[in-house]
Amino acid sequence: DHGLSEADPHVRTIIDKEKQRQFRSLELIASENFTSRAVMEAVGSCLTNKYSEGLPGKRYYGGNEFIDELETLCQERALAAFRLDGKKWGVNVQPLSGSPANFEVYTALLNPHDRIMGLDLPHGGHLSHGFMTPRRRVSGTSIYFESMPYRLDESTGIVDYDMLEKSANLFRPKLIIAGASAYPRDFDYPRMRKIADAVGAFLMMDMAHISGLVAASVVADPFEYCDVVTTTTHKSLRGPRGGMIFFRREPVLGVDLESAVNNAVFPGLQGGPHNHTIGGLAVCLNYAQSPEFRAYQNKVVSNCRALANRLIELGYKLVSGGTDNHLVLVDLRPLGIDGARVEKILDMASITLNKNSVPGDKSAQVPGGIRIGSPAMTTRGFTEKEFIATADFIHEGVKIALEAKRSVSGSKLQDFMKFIGSPDFTLM
Ligand code: PLP
């Protein structure tokens, strides 16, 4: 049996190039991070060979004594990392990623075509919370369920809870979803709980982006108010690529969440769990209980604030005026430039971030903002000083993007992309 270099030099070379790219660039994508060597070792282990459909002690295959031990350990660590009492909360650590975890919750709690309300995608929500356009039901969630998004108050950049309340009273959803992919503030869980209770809806939090911050108690705790909490494991939490679903053990609205969620994961939507991922997740969740992890998450937030303050000093408009978490959303429209052009220019300078729609945007393809996150570079050892310098680099990139845009005839994005030497760039 050969190692990768001998067995498949082509794939080895591609991995090496990607590794170089990761180490060369300033990684500012808010949903990404660098996991630890210990997690990578578990993920690259023999655990990937084993089939273990079912749950610990109740498997459909033999030979699972060590897998049972591992999954039970992972569950215990998941509850401990979020300070949850195992009598009140349970967890399923098998979801393959964040989107499947969310769909598993919908499958557990809803009937086809039941109504849900999540934050609108152009206002910072996630596709899996039910995005649709007037012409098309884009996400599977909106194909199988009836979705009415709630939105931000465009003047403040904060969730419009009054409007959510009014819409919920009319729409009568069975599920309200908190959580976002591009929202720099905490959710008001007590308010959302009240709204959900008034209409008899379940309340779920998708804490994918902020689960590391929740584990370290540097943002509000959703567990106190929600019935179900989902998360990815590879963002601020710094684990392997995967997902988890936490559920209350007490029945809610007459539903036994534990069996509903577990059955939705398997046999509902998944087959064999990815045991190598569960191994890596167990390692991550042990680390998530350490003082070093808490210190890291505090730095994620203080670094992000330093970045935000510097951008404000440089004259940028931030959605909601700042940040309480690991990301900032910059509204570039007052400058007359869009997020796609700025993303492209910064990419050429190995500064990796993403274009993002901002409230009030007309086009999702050429959105008016960029999203910048602090978790990955904080892992790489950046302090506030380096994040301030990063804001200055971004500012230089924006100036170059503005200059380049002025030099091209017209302002079409395709012309601009050709001008800066990327003729093969296609929009979405
Ligand atoms: N939920 C939120 C809030 C997210 O931001 C994301 C991904 O960015 C997901 C779910 C989906 O996770 P995955 O890409 O692992 O399916």
Summarize this entry quickly:
With 428 residues, the chain is of the alpha/beta class.
Structural description of this entry:
There is one protein chain. The protein is an alpha/beta fold. 43% of the residues lie in helices and 13% in strands. It has 16 helices and 17 strands. The chain has helices spanning 4-7, 9-24, 37-43, 65-81, 98-109, 140-144, 161-171, 189-199, 211-215, 257-269, 275-287, 291-313, 339-348, 375-379, 384-407, 413-419, and strands at residues 26-27, 54-55, 58-59, 89-92, 115-117, 146-147, 152-153, 158-159, 175-178, 202-206, 228-232, 243-248, 317-318, 327-331, 351-352, 354-356, 369-373. The strands form five sheets. The chain has a seven-stranded mixed β-sheet, sandwiched between helices. Strands 13-14-17-16 form a four-stranded antiparallel β-sheet, covered by helices on one side. Strands 1-15 form a two-stranded parallel sheet. It starts with a helix and ends in a 9-residue tail after the last helix. The model is unreliable at 423-428 (pLDDT under 50). It binds pyridoxal-5'-phosphate. Pyridoxal-5'-phosphate binds at residues 31, 97-99, 126, 128, 179-181, 206, 208-209, 232.
